[in-house]
Design a protein that fits this description.
Rossmann fold, elongated, Tumour Suppressor Smad4, alpha+beta
């Protein structure tokens, strides 16, 4: 039996028809199951571990990128098969996984095409999609070999599943990292325009372990959870997540 974790935003009336269509299709495929609605106080890890004890065969996340990151960053160590039914906007991860948004995702789930996915780790927290440090005066040292710093502020994005997008040289560039390493994007600040910050072209490098430090606290956002730090260690976790993916996945 599958357990479906519904994001709280799906209670909005505009999603009623989509949810009903998804539930009907899941029944047609014979993969319907128990529904649990996530609340602000829900502990995904405790909820999933409790369901695993009851013998469930899979945990299915229903929502968007934020839902995906919220659940898996907290439940990354749970021994379960995970699936994803993307609904609504903000669904870059679904494209990487080869899962269509909406009702068509049910067919991907029914086929149970499984892969192991890498997990990022920093300061005793996991992240699955990406980690972001807004422009800050930081020093970056990775794989105990290379050290990078800048005179002015620099933005750092570490990607795992969620791609990093930026515009440069008149083209849109999208990187989909899934190669047994984390992918880092370092963008020095080039100046400040009227409406937004201007950046230099990013430097891109894969790594397995990185230390980011600063004399002043900097903001770290990982899978939607923010904190202020003066030093963090980022690395690829030993644990991997088993996930149902589509044939059109990007890795």
């Amino acid at each position: 039996m599958y357990v479906y974790l519904y994001d709280n935003f799906l209670r909005q009336k505009k999603y009623d028809s989509t949810i009903k269509a998804i539930e009907t299709r899941l029944t047609d495929f014979g993969v319907a199951g128990k529904i649990i609605r996530l609340q602000n106080f829900t502990d995904p890890k405790a909820t999933i571990e409790d369901e695993i004890k009851k013998g469930v065969s899979g945990i299915i996340i229903v929502g968007n990128d934020a839902t995906f990151g919220y659940v898996l960053s907290r439940a990354a160590t749970c021994e379960a098969l995970f699936g994803f039914l993307p609904v609504g906007g903000n669904n870059q991860i679904a494209e990487v996984l080869g899962i269509p948004v909406g009702v068509e995702a049910c067919e991907v789930l029914s086929r149970r095409r499984k892969v192991k996915l890498d997990i990022g780790w920093f300061n005793n927290r996991y992240f699955v999609s990406k980690l972001h440090i807004p422009p800050s005066k930081i020093v970056v040292e990775y794989d105990e070999k290379f050290k990078v710093s800048a005179k002015d502020k620099v933005e750092l994005v570490v990607c795992n599943l969620q791609p990093f997008e930026w515009k440069g040289k008149g083209k849109n560039h999208t990187i989909h990292p899934q190669d047994g390493k984390l992918e880092a994007f370092l963008r020095p600040v080039a100046g400040r325009g009227i409406f937004k910050t201007k950046y230099e072209e990013p430097s891109i490098f894969p790594f397995q372990e990185m230390i980011v430090s600063s004399k002043k606290p900097f903001v770290v956002s990982a899978d939607g959870k923010e904190s202020k730090e003066t030093k963090i260690k980022i690395k690829l976790a030993k644990k991997r997540i088993e996930m149902v993916v589509g044939r059109e996945r990007k890795f």
